[in-house]
DNA sequence: TGGTCGACTTGATGCAGGTCAATCAACGTT
DNA sequence: AACGTTGATTGACCTGCATCAAGTCGACCA
């Protein structure tokens, strides 16, 4: 696996400037010197195999991670309940923001496929942020963006139909792929039906059925984990669809 | 800015040291000088009447607010959908974290009853945070706490029964009241059934029915908006209750 | 004193989607 | 080739809760 010699020597430590995610990653907007200081605190990237855990719930919180390639899921285990999948992380997204200021990681994060992540020791990041207002801003922005994402998710889970949830989910993925330069129409689902179901608060059979229905309506074409969005328009219609729970007050 | 001259006069500008929320508020852990600098950026507290809006969705984002007394709700309006209540804010909680880094406020916040809030212009807060690591830390911590809270909410909305949602909701409120020095057993719901229903992703009739059932089981006593938790144990049992959606994989 | 409004409760009904169960396809593994 | 395993699909059934609808209880006003 790679030539990867010493510890943090050259081949491993990434040059952010060259990274394809440059435009969507944490150090976005940093000056050149700042960028170099930033690069200096990045640990050698970790390679993860499918199913391998990046962080385990309850471990002491020490690092943030940025996904370079591949994808991961976060899930939290609650007392007597089944686990809940809370996030899927795609390249450029930051893992661990929800543990800042806590002693321990509050969810487990595992790779859904082979993945690389950049490791950022949080204390060093914090020190650096002390000197770099831009970096601070980026951190705030990331967290606040995640807050908004979670709220959108809450809206989704709160009284949307299975169709709406799936449609939104697919559109959301599509959008994220587009933003990263991949095709927004045709992609591979790295997560299982069961992960999707859990994430969306549905039974996995329902996910299967709804996808099948979408398919026979000609909205999507799905074969296993290969997904093609044929008719974005109508997907958006499905996602909106003002039925749901009774009106206002 | 010590003896506090002109600007917007004395009675308003709060002394954090004397504030009863001191121990749970943003400036927690600041040194005395730091605290004074912090106080200096607080605008004169706003008084809100029931139903009055503190921020409106889409307005330019400029301030964070800390609730001093009373309570508020945040709701976001989406395209063709009914509004979704995303938060209830109690004294000591910070309004607006989810808009940081955005141009506009992404939800409306209105008072559920007479309320006071401290206004913190965000740019000044940011400048101050540049010099006060403690304050920075507090900001991070607040945001990250909110992230965790949202995630807990997502878990709640994702495949918990109406009973579990209500039970968790009541316990959550109870906990927050306790933390603020109020009775955790007996409190007034400042929000309507419809707000609760919307927040929990239920129909308001369901809320009504479940509360009635809890009452006849002797778990709570509820009369209009006066709520008494009679049997916390059994509420916790209800909140846990491992039924829900099918198990793991 | 009655009228109207808003917040809440209660009853009856139907359906979306959860649950149980069987089957199948794609893999390794031996 | 036979086997187990894991993920996905599909069918049949049943229940929790949304929905529709009516009724109650104040509070406020004329």
TrEMBL record, chains A, B:
Gene Ontology cellular component terms for the protein in this record: cytosol
Positions of the HTH crp-type domain: 160-233
Keywords for the protein's UniProt record, in alphabetical order: DNA-binding, Transcription, Transcription regulation
Pfam families, alphabetized: cNMP_binding, HTH_Crp_2
Alphabetical list of CDD domains matching this protein: CAP_ED, HTH_CRP
Molecular function per GO: DNA binding; DNA-binding transcription factor activity
Domain Cyclic nucleotide-binding: 51-100
Record keyword Ligase present: no
The keyword Transferase is annotated on this UniProt entry: no
Coiled coil spans: none
Protein name per UniProt: Fumarate/nitrate reduction transcriptional regulator Fnr
Taxonomic lineage from the root: Bacteria, Pseudomonadati, Pseudomonadota, Gammaproteobacteria, Oceanospirillales
């Amino acid at each position: 696996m790679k030539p990867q010699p010493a510890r943090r020597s050259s081949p491993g430590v990434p040059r952010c400037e060259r990274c394809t995610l440059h435009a969507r990653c944490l150090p976005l907007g940093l000056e050149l010197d700042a960028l170099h200081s930033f690069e200096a605190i990045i640990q050698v990237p970790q390679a993860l195999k499918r199913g391998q855990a990046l962080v385990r719930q309850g471990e002491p919180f020490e690092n943030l991670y940025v996904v370079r390639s591949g994808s991961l899921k976060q899930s939290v285990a609650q007392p007597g309940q089944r686990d809940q999948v809370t996030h899927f992380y795609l390249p450029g997204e930051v893992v661990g923001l929800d543990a800042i200021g806590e002693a321990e990681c509050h969810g487990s994060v595992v790779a859904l496929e082979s993945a690389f992540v950049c490791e950022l020791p949080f204390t060093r990041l914090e020190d650096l942020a002390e000197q770099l207002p831009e970096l601070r801003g980026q951190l705030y922005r990331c967290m606040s963006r995640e807050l908004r994402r979670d709220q959108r998710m809450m809206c989704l889970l709160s009284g949307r139909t299975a169709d709406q949830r799936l449609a939104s989910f697919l559109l959301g993925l599509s959008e994220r792929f587009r933003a990263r330069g991949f095709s927004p129409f045709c992609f591979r689902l790295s997560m299982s039906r069961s992960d999707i179901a859990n994430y969306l608060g549905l039974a996995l059979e329902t996910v299967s059925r709804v996808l099948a229905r979408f398919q026979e309506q000609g909205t999507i074409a799905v074969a296993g984990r290969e997904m093609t969005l044929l008719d974005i328009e109508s997907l958006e219609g499905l996602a909106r669809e003002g039925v749901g729970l009774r009106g206002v007050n």
